[in-house]
Amino acid sequence: MQEFIRKFVIEELDHDFGEIPLSALDDAAIVDGIAFTTDSYTVKPLFFPGGDIGVLSVAGTVNDICVMGAKPLALSCAMIIEEGFSEEDLQRIVKSISLTAKSADVRIVTGDTKVVENGAADGLFINTSGIGRRSDHLDHNIQMVRRSREFKPNWPNDSSVGPGDTIIASGSIGNHGIALLSFREGYGFDTVVHSDAKPLNSLIEDALKIGGITAMKDPTRGGVANLLNEWAEKSHVGIKISEEALPIDDEVLTACEMLGIDPLEIGNEGKVLMAVVPSMADEVLSTIRSRPEGRNAAIIGEVSKEFSGVMMETHTGGKRVVEPPVGDPVPRIC
Ligand code: MG
Q: For 202-216, b where at least 16 C-beta lie within 10 A, e where not — what string?
């Protein structure tokens, strides 16, 4: 998919426009100081333990704005509705959109609705776009980075991770994908796993107030494995993580073992990974942990210039290369 997009979409478009352009393939573009992003949601089923397509469509776009160090301002919402779709379900989803937007302090200011014939959409698809302006705390954050090392970028982004940085995960990984998969396929595990779908803007604002963050990204499609490989490739660094340190809930781990899925490759919708200069890492971590959605946050690894790619120290003390996922272990989860 990445290769196809690069070759047949991005090459054809004016891909170097803006401070963070399309060609950077980052979470959002930065144009004239404005963070701008878009995402389409085709999750199946529309309602699942811990959330629904409405929560996802707001949280996903809000999170892609705030990982750039921007404060989300306003969203668009476009719905493609299959003819005959339940009015009651639509009302529930719009309610979810409204509540999630309120909780993230953003407003839906424009939108579109299209009804298509039976079979042309699987119930409901949603697209949201969003804009955000530079966070009031981003300059302070970057100043704190510059006390530790040289740092040229004006925004934290995929290519601004540096050797020595500490990698923090904001909470347990894998919950969203496993919640979707086990609910959809009806595996009936003893414990119901809930999705983590949630806007992360206030957690990220709190972390920026502390400062020292060099990059942030939400481990959505392709999970932590994909995220770390993108950072390693775009920042020309190596990233070493520790299996022991990875926060994973027991029920998620059990489900992954039974289904033969690598928790590192599962998409999350309410988690962020941060690269932080080491002198600030403990303070950023304790700030994240003081919030309910960040209570399982952990330092999971560090950045090195000694190798390239992503490597994991396993439980048994061995080392394994963490490859970017081939294909999608759990499709249609967002
Ligand atoms: Mg993202």
A: ebbbbbbebbbbbbb
